[in-house]
Amino acid sequence: MEFTLTAPGPETPADAPLHQSPVYGQAMARLGAQVRVLCIHEGGTCLAQAQIFSRRVMGLPLHWLPRGPVWAGDVPATQHSPLLAQLPQAKGLRGIWLATPDDMKATAAYTRLGYRALLTPQHVAELSLHRDPAIMRARMHGKWRNRLRRAEDAGLHVTHRPFDPGRDAPLLDLERTQRKHRRYTDLQPSFVSYWSQTAPKATRLFQLRDGKRPLAVMIFLLHGWRATYQIGWRDLRNAPPSAHHLLLWQAAEYLASKGFRQLDLGTIDTETAPGLAHFKLGSGGRARPLGPSLLRLPCARIPLAIRRAAV
């Protein structure tokens, strides 16, 4: 087999996770990241596509591959290691590599190439969307569904529209204050602005307001047939306790009606943020482990059998 690397690759498949979506890469480039999209070809067919983020740490090149590559559906798992072996050899990509496989099964292909685990796997919550609201309601935990009903019975009015970086900047300030209190470590709120500047229609802001005052907010990023929950804020003094139940439910209904199939609710941590984890899982989301965070040093050797398979 002959494999070639080209940049940029073709359009990313619609089922790609957030970190492998084109808009994510373009938004990160706006933030100053060096972004490459590489495609491994055979006979003109793209077998695997990877979006890679590079920087220098203490003078050393560091390359990060989050939740990728995105594989063509007919590539057997036995070919993953030979294909992955091509990436560190690409022009401009020699150095230290960090990777987070999208699932545990994908980890084996990396470990055969000298990647070693740094951190244990994170778990993410994924909510399957369906055009029939009754099916989505049936997946909810009983207490979560009861809280949603109370919010609906209270006659609360939810509005939604694309996020506007100029008009909605104060909402990001509210999230920044909340982050300091709760010690979040995810992407900074400003990322939403860069995302919306890159793709203005690829965001959705759901909010509950009391006149001009926001009471609760949820912001979603849209990519392919997936959406990702990015920001949630609630006025603890004035907003109803079930405000976010109503916002998430109406977002799920809206997204399903537009053809989206999955809502990614982000990582869950039952130890440091048990309430948030219960909220995500109670909505009907299912927990799924990603692969561990992996490190590969430049001196790592590729087994001879894998090198031969890649030629």
Task: Tell me about this structure.
By secondary structure, this protein is α+β, with helices and mostly antiparallel strands. Helix content is 29%, strand content 31%. The chain folds into two domains: 4-121 and 291-309, Gcn5-related N-acetyltransferase (GNAT) (Aminopeptidase); 124-289, Aminopeptidase. The protein contains ten helices and 15 strands. The strands form two sheets. Strands 1, 2, 3, 4, 5, 6, 7 and 15 form an eight-stranded mixed beta sheet that branches. A seven-stranded mixed beta sheet has the order 9-10-11-12-13-8-14, sandwiched between helices. The radius of gyration is 21 Å and the shape is elongated.
Q: How would you summarize this macromolecular structure in one to three sentences?
A:
This protein is α+β, with helices and mostly antiparallel strands. The protein is 29% helix and 31% strand.
